[in-house]
Structure prediction request, 655 residues.
Amino acid sequence: MRSSSFRQARGPARHRLATAAFLGLAVAFAGGQTTPAAAAGSATVSGIVLGVGADETQRTVAWYSSADTAQKVQLAPTAQLTGGAFPAGSATFDALGAKNIASSGGYNHRATLTGLKENTAYSYRVGTEGNWSPAYSFTTQDFEGEYDFLFLGDPQIGSSGDLAQDQAGWQDTLDVATKANPAAEILVSGGDQVESANNESQWNSFLAPDQLRQYPWAATIGNHDVGGKAYEQHFSTPNTDRSGSLYANGDPASNTSGGNYWYIYKDVLFIDLNSNSYATSQGGGGDEAHTEYVTDVINQHGSEAKWKVLVYHHSIYSPASHAKDKDNKARRVDFPTTFSQLGVDLVLQGHDHSYSRSYLIKNGEKADPKEQPGAADVYPGPGGVLYVTANSASGSKYYDITAPDSSGTSGAGNGADPLNPDGYWYNSVQNQEHVRSYVKVQVRDEKLVVENIRSGSCDAPNSQVSKGDWCKNTTADQPVGSVVDKVSVHPYNGDGQSLQVNVPKAAPGEFGWTIDGYNGLVDLGTAKEENGDHFTASGKINPILVSDTRRSLSPWAVSADVSAFKDAGKTFAGSYLGWTPYVLDQGAGAKAGVRVPSGYDGKGEGLAVSRGLGSAPQGHARGTAKLGADLDLKIPDSVQKGGYRATLTITALSS
Prediction:
């Protein structure tokens, strides 16, 4: 007998899917509600910044105070405030704090807000009783489902020498980006927040926009941030590992910043690295420490999310002067194979002050030599990774695109792209107009959509251009808000079929069904509540084509079984799935298998054990047949809200 099995390559626990019942809720962010003035002589607070938490139910808040007093955060649903006053009994969170380095002055504080509810507008303020900061607001959205986040490259406030204009450009990019995308849920940093690591005037300008108190900022250490403690003083990051191996000099107690961190936001596992530490000769653990860290985090938490996104500052695939830096060439050798083997989907980078989108890279080489420049859709297959480099979000500094050389078209090489000799072998798109931009990432059940969007023009605020540098943007054809580049990244579902079903919270309402067999995925849509005690769903498997031209006319059979349906730690049994097989196209002696009911009705095993889809006896005619089956899923209403996936394993047997 010969057996073949078709299964989802990534495994059923890899994707955590989202309910469709509550998508798209968006509430405008409020800001700047004032509170009574601080008592005379009290500590003043400054530099308030909202940060990401370990998951959707958390946020962090960090700030400075002028005096060493106990500090806390007060939090309440915005709807409960009356005239800007917080209600009695509002939640409070005690802050941890420490003295700042001498050049910063004052004290730093940080607190983690926990227990947040979805689809809720919150107001918060920091300080002490009778001496609160102004209040700011943020809004949570559905804790399951699709969402957008924004990636912002190298504000590097102060690098142009014109602090005011750098701040104005940074503010304008945030205004443009959040006005166009008010429901974006995270702002992700590409690093280099400021020009000089411990210059508090530059930090004040960077932190001036209120968006940094309304949207969680996921900080990243750049090379201009690492040379002092102000970065660590200003930001609070979740799950942070400050081991010496993750510091460039190996010493967390020194006057430098460092460490790696990770968090999960809905269906994305984010891992943020301190790429300033890349060589053991510096004293730290070098790139090997980072690859070990990424491996450990993905091994422990990769199954809790659908997508894996890495963020670090030093771009290893970029188009400008840093593309040929010795340290980036080293990272280009050290990182890609590990990222491919771990199933990383997207890598977000900064440092080179220009925009690029790589081809899909597998193990340090172009995954598919035939992938065309600027392709609108890419299909990574196993091991393909997309690398994106963001341009300046403030206009303080741009780097011009540089020319390829003869150093090779894989690994550390900077050779030319055979399909586009003016570009590097690894870049599908390269762009530099000396115009501010930002990257929008749409996280969808079935794809990631990455867009580079103009947030400015040649006009001020645009520091480097204002100082006389060139600019080739034309406002009429390339206005603010126009798209420079857009690509959809489609996940790899293997050669078999993945089943997807969205289970809503047990509540009244209308729920629709969709069927999507694209790229091997069978989408059973959003379940419908029946009789107040269970959910139902239906769909069809992607047809199975059987071809038999053997002269022996030997029998054959095709069967299948399904794994448990999983969403991270939540699960329900595959036995709840049943089917009704049929023959779509007659041939090869095909006969349909018997109907198997859902185990929900008869307490049976459903498709949790192998069941026949179709077969043919000895002596059947040669030819081809197409087999199909209607799927019948019945789930108890005790199953928790979530998006679940299972693996349907198809086995073909013949003598």
Q: What stands out?
A: The mean pLDDT is 90.
